[in-house]
Design a protein that fits this description.
It catalyses: L-glutaminyl-[peptide chain release factor] + S-adenosyl-L-methionine = N(5)-methyl-L-glutaminyl-[peptide chain release factor] + S-adenosyl-L-homocysteine + H(+). Helices cover about 45% and strands about 20% of the residues. By secondary structure, it is an alpha/beta fold. It has a seven-stranded mixed β-sheet, with helices on both faces. Strands 1-2 form a two-stranded antiparallel ribbon. It starts with 12 loop residues before the first helix and ends with a strand. The structure holds glutamine (GLN).
């Protein structure tokens, strides 16, 4: 462990901001001022307005000590979201802890596409059955359940930690989701249920690339949520093999994919023999990020 920082000369909010921000900058933070603000507000439980209008207020020495400890944790690349315990996804706050992947903005595109395409295929009011494979924090399944309360939403994860955290999120957000623990679609195959919508953001980083990821990701996020096997495509392969058994006669499949994987995954959807149309959607960085398959 590090020796604790001595910031006992810091007496106001403004001084705390300056001190924390220059410490984080020296440690290599890209947006040190923003991070310092978040950590101070987190230590005080303040919103942005309160913070911005209290710059000259004095700050409690215990809070300063707590802030210094948070800054030291951040210097070891611990993700801010784990430190604060929360990440916003599709306009809702999700509890996140080290047992689950921090939901990413790219995944919002996946969810948006599912909602758009489902409306186009079935209309808004149909009571569809949607399954989300790889629950994580519950970002996908809970958002779908909140946005389309008339749907039945189920989700599967291998990790009991993830299932526990996602259940907590469902309770907090008032979402009705059926949680199952197991390996990919295995629990669904066992019950013989067929789905209208299959959505997944599976682990897709090729095993040998996991070591190359940023420290923030590599040291703190669960490997189970990242490692997609030798070529990164193992989960898609297994999911696509199960499609003939899983899909209803009219169905939608939606996958998030990693860089340069969309073509291979599109091909797997075709090869399944039950998909009539495949479509690819790019993220805001122009990377092919979402692969959609429709069975008509
Ligand atoms: N479905 C979750 C998410 O998108 C978890 C995904 C994962 O762990 N690979 O955030």
């Amino acid at each position: 462990m590090h020796t604790p920082l001595d910031w006992s000369d810091v007496t106001t909010i403004r001084e705390a901001l300056t001190r924390a921000s220059s410490f984080l900058r020296e440690q290599g933070a890209k947006d040190s001022l923003f991070e310092a603000e978040l950590l101070i507000r987190h230590s005080l439980g303040w919103d942005r307005t309160r913070f911005l209008t209290s710059m000259n207020d004095s700050i409690n020495p215990q809070v300063v000590q707590q802030l210094a400890a948070l800054c030291q944790r951040r210097a070891t690349h611990e993700p801010l979201q784990y430190m604060m315990g929360t990440q916003e996804f599709y306009g809702r706050p999700f509890v996140v802890r080290p047992g689950v992947l921090i939901p990413r903005p790219e995944t919002e595109i996946l969810v948006e596409q599912v909602l758009l395409r489902a409306s186009a295929l079935w209309g808004e009011d149909e009571a569809l059955f949607a399954a989300d494979i790889g629950t994580g924090s519950g970002a996908i399944c809970i958002t779908l359940a909140c946005e389309r309360p008339q749907w039945q939403v189920a989700t599967v994860d291998l990790s009991s930690d993830a299932t526990r955290i996602a259940k907590e999120n469902a309770d907090r957000l008032g979402a009705q989701v059926r949680f199952m623990q197991g390996d990919l679609v295995q629990p669904l195959l066992e019950t013989g249920e067929k789905v209208d919508i299959l959505v997944s953001n599976p682990p897709y980083i090729p095993s040998s690339d996991v070591e190359e990821l940023d420290e923030e990701v590599r040291l703190y996020e669960p490997r189970l949520a990242l490692d997609g096997g030798q070529d990164g495509l193992i989960c898609y392969r297994r999911l696509c093999e199960a499609l003939p058994e899983l899909l209803k006669p009219k169905a939608l499949v939606a996958f998030e994919v990693g860089i340069h994987q969309a073509g291979d995954v599109a091909e797997m959807l075709h090869q399944s023999g039950v998909i009539d149309e495949v479509d690819i959607v790019c993220d805001l960085a122009g990377i092919e990020r979402v692969v959609l398959g429709t069975r008509k």
